[in-house]
Amino acid sequence: MIPAQSGAATAPPSTGEARAHGTDTEPDPRRWLALAVIAVAQLMVVLDGSIVTLALPHAQAALDISTADRQWVMTAYTLAFGGLLLLGGRIADFAGRKRAFIWGLVGFAGASALGGFTPNAEGLFAARALQGACAAVLAPAALSLITVTFTDGKERARAFGVYGGISGGGAAIGLIVGGLLTEYASWRWCLFVNVPIALVTAVAAISVVRESRAEGKPSYDIPGAATITLGLVALVYGFTRAADDGWGAPVTVSLLVAAVVLVVAFVVIELRTKAPLLPMRVVLDRNRGGAFLSSLFFGAALLAMFLFMTFYFQQTLHYSALRSGFAFLPFSAGIVVGAGMASQLLPRFGPKLLMVVGSALAVVGLLLLTQVGLDTGYASHVLPAEILISFGMGLAFVPMSSVSLIGVAEHDAGVASALANTTQQVGGSLGIALLNTVYATVVTNYLGDHGFGPAAEAQSQIEGYTVSFAWSAGLMAVALVVVLILVRAKKSDVAATGAPVHVG
Fold first, then answer.
1. What sign results for the dihedral spanned by CA atoms 133, 86, 194, 108?
2. How far is 1 from 49, CA to CA, in rounded Å?
3. C-beta separation of 138 from 148 below 8 A
4. Is the pLDDT of residue 332 over 60?
5. What is the DSSP letter of 109?
6. How far apart are CA 13 and CA 214, in angstroms?
7. End-to-end Cα, the chain, rounded Å
8. Burial class (CB in 10 A: 0-12, 13-18, 19+), 142
9. pTM confidence score
10. Which of 3, 1, 10 lies closest to 418 in space, CA to CA?
11. Amino acid 130: pLDDT
12. What share of the chain is helix, strand, coil (3-state, %, to 5)?
C-alpha cells in the first residue's frame, strides 16, 4: 500500500555502454512485449504487499505467532528489501539486468512456495526475508530494463507511465485478491499465488527481454551491505525484545547498542571505500537529505498504520478478509488522486508546499484514527481518516521523489532514485517494530490494571490501536518538521529531474 519507488541503483547506461554490450540504439522490436513482462513482475511485487497484510491475522492464528513477533511477517520482507536494494541494483547492473530479473523472479517464486508450505512461524519469517532479498534484485533490474529498452524519450515516458500505473493500481487489486484467497481458500494461497505468476513471467522474459549490463570492473560493497542490514535487524529485534523483556533489559540494551555500532560502522565504510554502496554525497545535500529523511518517517508512520488497521477491521469490527480489502480501497484511490493532482501542481507551486500540505493532511488523518472505538462506524471515523491520509500521501510523494534527484550527478542518479524506496522500506520496518512493541505494552498494562475477560481484552486492543495511531501521527509530524526545516527546493529546481514516480 505504501508507494513503491523501485529505483535502479545506478544511472541509466550511456549510448556507448549500450553499444559495447550489444544493445544498439535501434528500438527493440519486442520492447512493448518486454514492457508487458516487466509490468507483470512489478504487479506481482505490489500485490504481495497488500495480500500478505490482509492475510496476517489468519497466519498469526494458524501458526500461533505472538503479538510481539507478528511484525516479523512484514519487517522480515521490508528489512531484506530495503537493506539490500542498493546492492541488488549493483548486482543487476554488473551481472546483467535480464539475468538478474529472471533469477529474481525464480527466487521470489521459490521463497513464496516455502512460505506457503511452512509449518511454523520461523519458516514464514525466513521465507519473507528471502522474498525481500529476491525483490531487492528484481525491482531495480526491472526499472533499469525499461530505461535501456526504451531509447525514445516519448516512448520511455509512456513506459514509465504504464509501470507507475501498475504500481498504483496493483495494491488495490491485491486487496481484493488477498481478501478472496484468504476467505475462500487459505492465507497460504496469498503466497502460493506468486509461484505461477513469477515462473511464467521468467520464462516469457527469456525470449522477449534484451540483456544489458554496465561497463567496468564489477564492484560490490559487501561489507557496507552486511553492516547496514545487520544493524537494522539488530534494531528491529531490539524493539521486539523490548515488548517481552522491557526497554531496560540487558538483551534489549545490548541489541540497541549493537545496532548503533553497526550503523556507525556502515557510515565509516561508506566514507572510506572506493566504490561505496551509498556515497555520502548523495544524502548530505540539504534538499535530498530532507527528502530521504522525511521518506523514512513517512514509511515508519504509514506501514505501522496498515498493520493496526488490518487487525482493527478483522478483530474489532469482525470484518472478513474480503470486506477488509474493500474497506481499504478508498485508501488506494486517494493515493492515485493525490499523486495525479501533485503531478499537475508541482510545476506551478514547487515541491515544498505540496510536501508540507500532504504531510499535514496525513497527520490530521492519523489523529482522527485515535478516535476509533469498539462501536464507532467505518463511514464516520475510518473513511474520513483514510481519505485524508491517502490523499496527503499522494500529494507528498510526487514532489518527494523529484527533490531526491535535485542536483545529483548523473553517475549517482540511480542511487538517489533507489534510496527513496530504501528509506520507505527501512522506515516501515522500524516503525512496525517500534509501534508493535508500543501496542503490546499498552495492551499488557491495560489488562494488568483492569483484569482479564472478553470486555477488557476487547478494550485493551482499542487502547493499543489508538496509542499506536497517536505515535504514527507523531512520526508523521516529525516528517513534516523535517520538510519545513530542510527542504528549500523551488519549482525551477525540480523541472528537469524527470524522476519516475510510482505509487501503490
1. negative
2. 7
3. no
4. yes
5. H
6. 7
7. 5
8. buried
9. 0.87
10. 10
11. 96
12. 80, 0, 20
DSSP string, 133-197: HHHHHHHHHHHHHHHHH--SHHHHHHHHHHHHHHHHHHHHHHHHHHHHHHHHT-TTHHHHTHHHH
50-86 residue pLDDT tens: 888 889 999 999 999 998 899 999 999 989 998 888 8
State the Cα angle at 192 between 185 and 34, rounded to 5°.
125
How far apart are the C-alpha atoms of 400 and 499, rounded to whole Å? Answer: 10
State the angle between helix axes of 31-63 and 72-95 in degrees (0 to 180), rounded to the nearest 10.
Answer: 150
In angstroms, the CA 379 to CA 363 distance is: 19
Looking up cell 551509498 gives 278
- Radius of gyration of the chain measured on its C-alpha atoms: 22
CA 428, 434, 438, 443 torsion: positive or negative? positive
Contact present, 5 and 501 (Cβ < 8 Å): yes
In the three-class reduction of DSSP (H, G, I as helix; E, B as strand; rest coil), residue 262 is classed as: helix
Alpha-carbon distance of 283 to 307, in angstroms, equals 29
Among candidates 23, 277, 26, which has minimal Cα distance to 145? 23
* 89: nearest Cα among 73, 76, 107, 101: 101
201, 40 contact by CB (below 8 A): yes
Of 267, 219, 284, nearest to 416 by C-alpha is 284
Half-sphere exposure of 262 (CA within 13 A, CB side): 20
Contacts of 407 (CB under 8 A, 6+ apart): 285, 287, 288, 493
Q: What is the pLDDT of residue 449?
A: 87
Residue with cell 470484518: 319
Q: Which residues contact 403 (CB under 8 A, 6 or more apart)?
A: 287, 288, 290, 291, 351, 355, 487, 489, 493, 494
- Using a 10 angstrom Cβ sphere, with 0-12 exposed, 13-18 middle and 19 or more buried, the burial of residue 406 is buried
- 396 and 359 Cβ atoms separated by less than 8 Å: yes
pLDDT of residue 29: 77
CA-to-CA distance for 418 and 175, rounded, in angstroms? 26
State whether residue 354 is helix, strand or coil.
Answer: helix
Q: Taking the CA of residue 442 as centre, how many other CA atoms within 13 Å lie in the half-sphere pointing to its CB? A: 20
User: Could you please report the per-residue DSSP string of 311-341?
Assistant: HIIIIIS---HHHHHHHHHHHHHHHHHHHHH
pLDDT at res. 478: 97
Q: Is the dihedral of CA 105, 106, 111, 112 positive or negative?
A: positive
8 Å CB contact between 426 and 86: no
**b/e map of 208-229 (b: 16 or more CB within 10 Å)?**
bbbebbbeeeeeebeebbbbbb
**C-beta neighbour count of 5 within 10 angstroms:** 29
CA distance 393 to 208: 36
Q: How far is the C-alpha of 371 from the C-alpha of 367, rounded, in Å?
A: 8
Of residues 395, 400, 381, 386, the one with CA closest to residue 332: 386
Is residue 91 over pLDDT 90? no
